[in-house]
Amino acid sequence: MKRNRKPPDPRGRSMRERILQADLSDAQSLLWRVADALRSGRMPAAEDAEAHARALNAILDGDDPRRALGLAGRKGQGRRERTSAEVDSIELQPTMQVELLRREGISREEAVERVADSAHIPLDTLTRYHKKHRKAALFIIDSMVRAVLRAEAKRRQ
After folding, report:
1. Disulfide engineering: 66 pairs with which of 20, 71, 103, 138, CB 3.0-4.6 Å?
2. Are 66 and 31 in contact (CB under 8 A)?
């Protein structure tokens, strides 16, 4: 007997792959499933539609939308630690941008302001990231510069 297979996701990954890769909560995965079904013109699965209907009714009754949809943390639940990939993209990359601007002769304050504006990061937050990750950013930038110089020297030989 042949199983009915879903057509592949137009973005190249199945819903399951996107959920597993994003490490989403059950509530977030429910929202993804419902949104994908509606976007593709299908009705969501019965259990997804029922859960979503309950959440919408709670919102209409005045409950906090984040809590009703299951997106708010529970009381007493500690803050989740960031993964190293999240730290890299959220904290280290803007710090590296600041340091690259500083190498062009721009003052630290001006560089922080420019990166904060372009990355939409509050100034005090980026200042804290810069203080915390400055040495790592400088090490990475210096390593990259040395690697480029070595490659250029090899090419000249």
Report:
1. 71
2. no
- At 90-145, the pLDDT tens digits run 888 899 999 999 999 999 999 999 999 998 889 999 999 999 999 999 998 888 88
* In a shared domain, residues 114 and 52: no
Do 88 and 127 belong to one domain?
yes
Residue 41's CB is within 10 A of a number of other CB atoms, namely: 6
Whole-angstrom distance, CA of residue 132 vs CA of residue 151: 31
Q: Where is the domain boundary, 39, 68, 97?
A: 68
DSSP assignment of 8-21 equals: PPTTSS-HHHHHHH
Q: Are residues 152 and 96 in the same domain?
A: yes
CB 88 within 8 A of CB 95: no
Range of the domain at 23: 15-68
pTM for the model: 0.48
CA gap 152, 97 in Å, rounded = 23
CA distances from 151 to 138, 144, 145 (A): 20, 11, 10
Measured distance CA(129)–CA(137) in Å, rounded: 11
Residue 77, CA atoms < 13 Å, CB-side half-sphere: 7
